[in-house]
Design goal:
- With 171 residues, the chain is of the alpha/beta class.
- The protein contains 7 helices and 6 strands, in the order αβααββααβββαα.
- It starts with a helix and ends with a helix.
């Protein structure tokens, strides 16, 4: 009788330990999933953004496009920057097919048939903001189809293109 009681007590303690461990694992999984979903952003090209306007309105987004230089307007009093961006392929194979990033950015700016959107950014004008620069922006699309950027990163491949041969040759 004594042996049966000890075995039952040991089984209960083991079961409590397993249940407690399972609850801790479940809590950790829940925290990981909920924090990932809360900070998730969609990374879209301009074509994808235009096609999914209703689906992605008022969601955190990251988009990329070519800056159209003639559209740049800056209100110094309100630190409000407005410009248009045109679609640039997001796939490296498509960029290579267009002759590289610099050629793809140029093609995007001069081709009026490519999808375009207006971007509004509040803050100082970045130094690299110019025609045919690649803009990578984080923000939200409003109901009017205007993208309100919270973060604005710019790449200007033509600025660095000339330095590449010197770097390769070791000069």
């Amino acid at each position: 009788m004594e042996e049966t009681t000890i075995t039952q007590t040991g089984s209960r303690n083991r079961m409590k330990f397993i249940m407690g461990g399972a609850m801790i694992v479940a809590a950790v999984i829940y925290l990981i999933v909920s924090s990932t979903q809360a900070s998730a952003q969609y990374f879209l090209t301009i074509n994808e953004l235009v096609a999914k306007t209703d689906e992605v309105a008022d969601r955190d987004l990251r988009i990329s496009g070519a800056v159209i230089g003639d559209s740049i307007v800056y209100d110094r009093d309100n630190l409000l920057l407005t410009f248009d961006v045109a679609h640039v392929p997001g796939d490296n194979a498509d960029l290579d097919a267009e002759g590289g990033l610099a050629a793809a950015l140029h093609a995007a700016v001069v081709d009026p048939t490519r999808s375009r959107i207006t971007v509004v950014y509040e803050g100082p004008v970045p130094d690299l903001l110019q025609n045919e620069a690649q803009a990578i922006m984080t923000g939200r699309l409003d109901s009017e189809g205007v993208f309100h950027a919270d973060e604005l990163l710019l790449k200007c491949p033509t600025k660095y293109e000339e330095a590449v041969p010197e770097q390769v040759s070791g000069n």
